[in-house]
Amino acid sequence: MGIANKHVILGVTGGIAAYKSADLARRLREQGAEVRVVMTLNAGQFITPLTMQAVSGHPVHSDLLDPEAEAGMGHIELARWADVVLIAPATANFISRFARGIADDLLTTLCLATQAPIALAPAMNQQMWQNPATQDNIAILNNRGVPILGPAVGDQACGETGPGRMLEPVELIEGVSKLFESGALEGCNVMVTAGPTWEAIDPVRGITNHSSGKMGYAVAHAAAEAGARVILVSGPTALQTPPRVDRVSVLSAQQMYDAVMSKISDTDIFISVAAVADYRPRASADEKIKKHADTLSLELIKNPDILSAVAEHKHVYTVGFAAETTNVEQHAREKLISKGVDLIAANKVGAGKGFGTEDNALILVDRTGLKSLPQARKARLARCLIDEISQRRNAKSTSQDTRQARR
Predict the structure, then answer these.
(1) Lowest mean pLDDT across 229-233, 252-256, 402-406
(2) % of the chain residues with pLDDT over 90
(3) Is-contact 366 392, C-beta < 8 A?
(4) Closest CA to 277 of 355, 354, 198, 160
(5) What is the DSSP string of 110-160?
(6) Does residue 354 have a pLDDT over 60?
(7) Which of 1, 44, 53, 215 has the largest count of CB atoms under 10 Å?
(8) Does 376 have pLDDT greater than 90?
(9) Is the distance from CB of 254 to CB of 235 less than 8 angstroms?
(10) Looking at the predicted structure, is the pLDDT value of residue 226 above 90?
(11) 304 cis-preceded (ω within 30 degrees of 0)
């Protein structure tokens, strides 16, 4: 799947391998990632912030107590912005401080503040790497599930040979890319609907809504990263199809219904993110309606209910979205029951929330209770949602198997 469109914080610490960090930043951008660089003060002794700014395309961050950054809680903003934090090179000193939870500069503070995965690319003298203190720190990080990328074995700047060389940029990018491929939905067929629908009034006018499709496309992307075979049934959007996703483009609610139902028999998980019009004009004019009278009446008829229709197929784990302006939890629970679905992901929309934004927050409601997924970038939120769906679907399957075994 690669790291296209991912937000990467590249942390650079004070080791001679920092000279490779410039090439790493350049290659990350070539792969489609957006890169922000955070340097320790010692890193600036090996490679200049100006160099890292040039290759990343953005100013370098280094001061924890920068008055301008701290006015906006700079380290918190960076922590929330990141999809992944890659420390390359990670010196023995940084590894020690990170393992012990010390937060005495911008980079270590950011690492404590972020929810994004943090990967380390160790780089140091071979004796420093093999020192019991360093190995104890690595063991602590391994127990926490922190990915350790490398080190490689070979000639070192000090003239010695052994383990401690930082992996090459290509190897590091490959390692970071794998962090997004969980395999949680390996072998599953997933269908996602996304975007708005367009209900024609005449050849140039129609009824639609503010949905940008960003959340649905993020969910489709996350499902593909989790190993699923994904079909994305999309209303009209300006978004690019995510990698390894088959897209079916539709316009109206009826077309979306037809596209979904034609493939539902082969679907294991259905995630209805699209903002589907509830009603459509009974008839669409063949020609543009001219402005004559002071009023114009349209007769609307109900569109097919895609979510309810899918929920009747009991082999499908069905997830609906509920975009609400008020009483989000109440309306979500009502929708869960009335539609007969397995899970509702609800969010509040309006006044800069939900539609068209880069971030979102969700409340997950099923028959056992609710869980909040806090505000985050839609890409990260989608990955959290896919993890929840995978776990809940597996739990449901286990429960059903247990009940059948008891009969």
Answers:
(1) 402-406
(2) 75
(3) yes
(4) 198
(5) HHHH--S-EEEEE---HHHHHSHHHHHHHHHHHHTT--B---EEEE-TTS-
(6) no
(7) 215
(8) no
(9) no
(10) yes
(11) no
Domain ranges of the chain: 7-178, 189-278+299-406
Q: What's the token pair of residue 304?
A: 């097919």
In one-letter notation, the amino acid at residue 142 is: N
Q: Which of 111, 158, 188, 384 is catalytic?
A: 158
> What's the CA gap between 73 and 81, in Å, rounded?
12
Checking if the pLDDT of 292 tops 60, the result is: yes
What is the predicted pLDDT for the residue at 70?
Answer: 47
Strand partners, 61: 38
The CATH number, out of the four listed (1.10.357.10, 3.40.50.720, 2.60.120.10, 3.40.50.1950), of the domain defined by the range 7-178: 3.40.50.1950
Owner of token pair 């409601």: 365
Beta pairing class for 34-39 and 7-12: parallel
> Where do we find the tokens 């090996």?
46
Contact 89, 12 (CB under 8 A): yes
Class of domain 189-278+299-406: alpha beta
Pairing status of strand 300-302 against strand 279-281:
antiparallel
- Amino acid found at 290: K
Is 188 annotated in the active site? no
Instruction: Say how far residue 121 (Cα) sits from the centre of its chain.
Output: 23
Which residues have a Cβ under 8 Å from the Cβ of 247 and sit 6 or more positions away? 231, 232, 233, 234, 241
Query: What pLDDT, in 10s, does the model give residues 118-162?
Result: 999 999 999 999 999 999 999 999 999 999 999 999 877 777 788
